[in-house]
Design goal:
The complex is a heterodimer. Chain A is an alpha+beta fold. Chain A has helices at residues 22-28, 77-85, 89-102; strands at residues 2-7, 10-15, 47-50, 53-56, 69-71. In chain A, 31% of the residues are buried. The chains are: A alpha+beta, B alpha+beta.
Chain lengths: 103, 263
């Protein structure tokens, strides 16, 4: 099945299985910010923005986002960097440490 | 869940024709619960492009499209104005915002899930379900309907009523299913619903009749109503809660709810 949607503002097409979930499609395309934590729509580690709303990508079939705008953490790197640099140094270290722990 | 085909219908009629074509075809609303089902489906019918995701109102009713997300529902001003936002509060207690952005009100109703907070909250309002092809039935009738229901839920009509509401969901952690949920409303009459017993929500009809037969019920009457309610509805044990504890919780919160809505 062919699905077309805007991924981080770039129009892309994917060949996916009918029962493939968005988290799987995004990870296969190389976007590793999406984590398959619980894979049961509970933990939130797979959250992406679909049409500017946070949604759990492990619970959404890829077919459901046809024509939508999907944004992952990779798509908001500049904003994330700006937010991080606006923080005091101590907070930046805390964030960096938290990210290391997550990896 | 296994699917052979994914279908995007052009209209509600198209969705209905596809649904009745094969008993293994299924409608897709939010889709979260379908994911957990270990079943093979032939065609999954995605309702997201049929413009069923709006909330309207007229003089008598609030008309909620079946594909309105739980998040839209809880943020709707018209819903917030109904029974002091009881239904919005019930929905706000479900999982997380990203979850509620996908989960739909129609999906929550059609699934007749025993743990549903949405159903329990809506039971204490005057709710009619409108299906395609032409068919209307009350929420209670739908819950009592046996077997597979081969129609497409188009919208949910909630009668505008002035009154007070109370909703209580007891759960062990923030993201857990309810151990029990209780909804009470008072407009011109009292309504009491209890869900997750662990069966799907139901009205405590005898307790309601008792209260509604009194002109000005007192606290003792509320206690008696709670006792009638726990006798008339079935409560069972489940893994994380005993039947006795469920009954004790129900009795306590029915009384508290009745006191609150009667203020």
């Amino acid at each position: 099945m062919k699905v077309t949607f805007y991924l981080n503002d770039i129009l892309m097409s994917f060949d996916v299985k009918e029962n493939e979930y968005l988290a799987e499609t995004l990870r296969k395309s190389g976007l590793k910010s999406i984590r398959l934590g619980c894979n049961e729509t509970s933990c939130g580690a797979c959250t992406v923005l679909i049409d500017n709303k946070p949604v759990l990508s492990c619970g959404v079939l890829t077919g459901q986002v046809d024509g939508c705008h999907v944004i992952t953490v990779e798509g908001i790197q500049d904003e994330a960097l700006k937010s991080l640099t606006a923080l005091p140094m101590k907070e930046r270290i805390n964030v960096a440490f938290a990210m290391l722990v997550m990896h | 869940m296994k699917i052979q085909h994914y279908y995007r219908p052009a209209s509600v009629d198209d969705a209905y024709q596809k649904l009745i074509e094969n008993p293994k075809n299924v409608l897709l609303a939010g889709g979260f619960w379908l994911k957990k089902m270990n079943q093979n489906y032939d065609t999954i019918i995605d309702l997201s492009s049929l413009n069923l995701n709006e909330i309207h109102e007229n003089d008598d009713f609030i008309i909620v499209g079946s594909m309105v997300s739980q998040r839209q529902f809880e943020n709707s001003k018209v819903i917030q104005n109904l029974f002091n936002d009881m239904a919005g509060f019930a929905v706000r207690e479900i999982m997380s915002v990203p979850f509620r952005n996908s989960a739909t009100i129609g999906g929550s109703i059609m699934g007749r899930y025993p743990f549903s907070d949405v159903i329990t909250a809506l039971l204490v309002m005057d709710v009619t379900l409108r299906f395609y092809p032409k068919q209307e039935m009350s929420l209670m009738d739908y819950l009592n309907y046996k077997g597979k229901f081969n129609s497409v839920l188009v919208d949910i009509l909630i009668k505008k009523e002035k009154g007070k509401g109370f909703f209580k969901k007891i759960k062990t952690t923030a993201l857990d299913f309810p151990l029990i949920n209780i909804a009470i409303s008072k407009s011109d009459k009292y309504r009491i619903a209890i869900g997750s017993r662990p069966m799907v929500g139901a009205l405590a009809v005898s307790a309601m009749e008792y209260l509604n037969s009194l002109s000005n019920p007192s606290e003792e009457d509320f206690i008696k109503a709670s006792e009638i309610a726990i006798i008339e509805l079935n409560f069972l044990d489940s893994v994380n809660i005993s039947k006795e504890y469920r009954i004790a919780l129900a009795k306590t919160y029915i009384k508290r709810g009745l006191l609150e809505v009667s203020k």
